[in-house]
């Protein structure tokens, strides 16, 4: 595969060495090399293979390899390419952060929440709580990825709205982002990720076995308005 040329041989050797030693975790320099790969828009499947080689948890491998979750809508094509790329990059950053803290989290990133909600915002008026969540996520993502127009410090300035603090949307964020992450991991498991090799018990998260299916799409949809 031509895409394999993205992967430095030094990184591959380091990951292979780490995989052979149960007591060895990835060094900070190795994690930085992985972050660099993610910033180069390397396909997430290749990044997930790197995590498999480094014996990251099954959950983390599946969370990275899984598809982008979008609201079921005819407006799905409104999501810009940069936002889809940012979803993978931020998902990868979150995984590495959890790995460094020896944790496995429950929530997806604000970037994934924004991408999920964007088609819904074109389809129908949202409840005030979800509207606030959408605006909050938009501000977080646009600031992080330098997508605000020159001279603007926040998204709130552009829309003439009040500042929304995380504590006011925390409940909605946790509910939606948890659902997104669970869906991503479930679909990756159905695709077969995490079933291709053995994992050490200390680095794996026990999940219910799911049937392996083929041709899982790069993204999938369900409705924000479903019960």
In a few lines, what is going on in this structure?
With 227 residues, the protein is mainly alpha-helical. The chain is built from nine helices and two strands.
Q: Any overview of this molecule?
A:
- With 227 residues, this protein is mostly helical.
- It has one domain.
- It has a two-stranded parallel sheet.
- The radius of gyration is 18 Å and the shape is globular.
- It starts with 8 loop residues before the first helix and ends in a 5-residue tail after the last strand.
Fold topology:
Elements: H1 9-19, H2 28-39, H3 44-53, H4 58-65, E1 68-71, H5 81-100, H6 110-123, H7 128-144, H8 155-159, H9 166-191, E2 219-222
Parallel strand pairs: 1-2
Helix pairs in contact: 2-5, 3-4, 4-9, 6-7, 6-9, 7-9
């Amino acid at each position: 595969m031509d895409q394999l040329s993205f992967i430095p041989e030094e990184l591959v050797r380091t990951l292979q060495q780490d995989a052979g030693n149960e007591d060895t975790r990835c060094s900070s320099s190795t994690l930085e090399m992985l972050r660099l790969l993610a910033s180069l828009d390397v396909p997430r499947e290749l990044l997930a293979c790197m995590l498999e080689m480094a014996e990251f948890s099954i959950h983390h491998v599946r969370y990275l390899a899984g598809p982008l979750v979008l609201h079921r809508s005819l407006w799905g094509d409104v999501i810009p390419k940069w936002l889809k790329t940012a979803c993978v990059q931020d998902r990868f950053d979150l995984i590495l952060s959890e790995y460094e803290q020896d944790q496995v989290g429950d929530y997806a990133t604000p970037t994934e929440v924004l991408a999920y909600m964007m088609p819904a915002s074109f389809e129908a008026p949202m409840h005030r709580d979800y509207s606030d969540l959408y605006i909050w996520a938009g501000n977080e993502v646009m600031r992080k990825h330098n997508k605000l127009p020159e001279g603007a410090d926040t998204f709130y300035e552009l829309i003439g709205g009040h500042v929304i603090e995380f504590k006011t949307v925390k409940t909605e964020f946790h509910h939606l982002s948890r659902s997104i992450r669970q869906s991503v991991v479930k679909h990756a498991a159905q695709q077969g990720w995490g079933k291709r090799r053995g994992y050490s018990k200390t680095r794996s998260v026990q999940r219910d076995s799911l049937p392996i299916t083929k041709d899982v799409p790069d993204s999938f949809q369900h409705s924000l308005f479903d019960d």
